[in-house]
Amino acid sequence: MQNLQTSDLLADLGPVGILFDCDGVLVDSEPALAEIAATALRDFGAAAIPADFKPYIGMSEDMYLGEVTAKYGVEFNETITHHVYEKYVELAANFVHPFPGMRDMLIRLKTAGCRIAVASSAEQIKVTTNLKLLDLPAAFFDVVITGSDIERKKPFPDIYLLAASRCGVSPDRCFVVEDAVSGIQAGKAAGMTCIGFTSSHTAEELREAGADIIVDDIRDVWTSIQPC
Is 52 a catalytic residue? Predict the structure, then answer.
């Protein structure tokens, strides 16, 4: 697949889709999530630390929580997931914030005519909690897909293919914005142009995963896409 270029965007080829991961992309949540999850898992006898979760950033909660509980010999179950979610919803407003300029950039992309989607492997309750922090109208996003909507999670391409389909945009007209290796791999497997944001992984790690563009500031997504 050829990467989408500015000249393509300027041509009358139909809408462009911008498909955002949520944690670590729309909101600066990964450090807070790791702290909250580590604290919550201790209630089940797993002496987890925040660093345990880094290999599983961007993956399903079964992986993110399940692999860490297994490391400490604790059997993973839905009760653990619900407990972590309860803690996250309770504390998110105090510890999780949109990245600087994110809200304005989203509005700018929307005004330019882009189709805007959220495609997160996290469960709906956590995604909903995060999106409220953006202080945008409930119907702002054209599509919101969560881990509750798909069976095969990232690095499989399913979530991004579904997001593109629901946006009415072909995969080769879509940009994926991701902070996680598994998310970049999912976007590339879907045949999309991938922008790696270095909030959770290094530029080198994201490039190795297949990122076409690297940004250190989420506001640079606008200049990377140049949709108008």
Answer: no
Catalytic, out of 8, 12, 23, 135: 23
Candidates 118, 131, 120, 123; CA nearest to 154 is 120
Q: What are residue 22's phi and psi, to 5 degrees?
A: -105, -70
Strand residues in the chain grouped as ranges (E): 17-20, 27-28, 97-98, 115-119, 143-145, 174-178, 193-197, 213-215
Q: What is the mean pLDDT of each run of 10 residues along the chain (228 residues)?
A: 45 82 96 94 96 92 94 96 94 94 96 96 93 93 95 96 98 97 97 97 97 96 75
23 is a catalytic site residue:
yes
Side by side, the strands of the sheet bearing 174-178 are: 143-145, 115-119, 17-20, 174-178, 193-197, 213-215
**Report field, pTM of the whole predicted structure over 0.70:** yes
CA distance 199 to 99: 10
Q: Tokens 């929307």 identify what position?
A: 110
State residue 138's pLDDT score.
Answer: 82
What is the greatest pairwise CA distance in the chain? 58
Give dist(CA 157, CA 63) in Å, integer: 17
160 close to 190: Cβ distance less than 8 angstroms: yes
Catalytic residue from among 12, 21, 28, 216: 21
Residue 155, preceding bond cis, omega within 30 degrees?
A: yes
What is residue 2's predicted lDDT score, i.e. its pLDDT? 42
Residue tagged 């989420």 (tokens): 218
**CA 153/CA 225 separation, integer angstroms:** 26
